[in-house]
Amino acid sequence: MTAIGIRAAAPTDAAECARMLAEASRDRRTVRVVGGMTKSYIGDVGDTDTEVRTSGLAGIVDHVPADLTVTVVGGTRMADLADALARAGQFLPLDPPHADHATIGGIIAANSNGFWRARYGGVRDLLIGTRIALPDGTVARSGGRVVKNVAGYDLNKLITGSFGTLGVIVEATLKVLPVPTARDGVVATFARGPDAFAAASAIARAASRPEAVAVERTARDDWRLIATARGAAAAVARATADARREIKARGGSAAIAADELDELRELPARATDGALVRVAVPIAAQSAFADTAARLEGFATLVADAASGVVRVHVRGDDDAVTRGAEALLLAARMVGGGGRVERRAEHLRARLPASPTRTNGGLLMRRIKDAFDPAGILEPGRSPA
Questions:
Q1: DSSP letter at 62?
Q2: Which pick of 113, 173, 185, 318 has the fewest CB atoms within 10 Å?
Q3: 1-179+356-386: what CATH class?
Q4: How far apart are CA 258 and CA 235, in angstroms?
Q5: Cβ partners under 8 Å of residue 235, min gap 6
Q6: What is the DSSP letter of 103?
C-alpha cells in the first residue's frame, strides 16, 4: 500500500522504467523501487516522492532447457518462475526467504540467499546476465543469455545486493538445473551447541555434498540440526547415511526430516517484533558465536546456515534489552572476524536501532559508485551504505 503523498508508477517495459527514472532525476524526486514488498523492512529506508512498482514488468522472456538458462523480466514472482520451470523438469537453485511472493529482481537486489547457497552457489553465482534501467534514462546490459559469457564489465555482481540504489533490474538471466530425482534428510537434537555445530561442519564438508545444513536453537535448551540432500538416489542415500553417522558420533538422536527447513528459512518473515540480527562469521566461529547469542537477555531464536556461516538471531523483550542484545550480537560477530546488520526490527525501534550501527568498510568507494550511477541521489535514499 502506497503512503499518502507518494506518487505510484508502474512501468510496463524497460524503456518506460528508464524514462521514469530520468524524469525523477531531472526533477530531483526521490524513488523507492517496489517488487513483492517482501523486504521493505531491510535497511534504513528514507522518505520518497515516487514509488516505482515492478509488477508490470513480469514474465518469462526466454527459456532454453538444453542450455539450462532462463531469462525473466525483473518483476516476475519467484513462485511463478518455479511453476514454469517445473513443467520443463527444471528448477532455479535458490531458496530465499519470502519465495512465495518475492520477485526475481528483488531477490537479486537484496542478494537474498537461503540454505542451498553452499551446494549450488548464491545469487551472484547463478546470475549470468542483467538489463538495468538507470537514472540517466538508459538501459544498461551486462553479461548475456549463455553460461559461457565474458562480454563487458561484470555489473551483475555489482548490482547484486545494491537494494535498488544503483538502478532497477528489468531483466535477468539465470542458470537453472534439472529437478533432482530423489530427496531425503535428517533432523537431530543435541544437548550441547558445540556438538551440533561439530556434526554440522562434518556433514557440510563430506564428499557426499548435502544440499543444506542448518542448526537451530530456541529459548528452550535443545539444539536442532537439519541436513537435507537431493540428487540421484544413490548419492542421496550416501549423504543421508553420512549425516546419520556424524550425528551418532557426537551423541545426537536422528529422525527423518520433514519440512523443518521451510520453517527456519522464513524466520525473517516471522520476526516482526524485537530485532532480527543477521551476521556472517567464519564457519569455525559459529559455535562460539551461537553460545554467546543463546546467553543474551531476550534471546528467542537462532538459525545458522552451518555450511556458509550466515547466522540469524531473534531477540525480544523491552526496548532496552532488544537494543543491547542487537548491539552485543554485532560486536560478537566482529570479535570473531565477521560482520552483520540489524536485518529487521519493530517499527518503533527504527530510529533507535539503525540497520548498520557502525560505518561500512569501503564507504568511499561505494560513494563513488553511487555517484557514477545515480548522480542526483534519487534512488532509495537511506538504503545506500555510502
A1: E
A2: 318
A3: alpha beta
A4: 19
A5: 182, 208, 209, 229
A6: B
Separation of alpha carbons 141 and 133, rounded Å = 9
DSSP string covering 258-274, please? -SHHHHHHTHHHH--SS
- Residue 304 to residue 166: CA distance in whole angstroms: 30
CATH class of the domain whose range is 180-263: alpha beta
**Topology of the domain covering 266-347:** Alpha-Beta Plaits (3.30.70)
**Tell me, what's the pLDDT at 364?**
85
DSSP per residue, 155-183: HHHHHTT-TTSS-EEEEEEEE-EEPPSEE
* Closest by CA position to 383, among listed 39, 8, 20, 29: 39
pLDDT of 1 reads: 45
Give yes or no on whether 180-263 and 266-347 have one common fold. Answer: yes
Which parts of 67-113 are beta strand (E)? 69-73, 90-91
pLDDT < 50 stretches in the chain: 1
Going from N- to C-terminal start, the domains of the chain cover 1-179+356-386, 180-263, 266-347
pTM as predicted = 0.93
DSSP state of 98: T
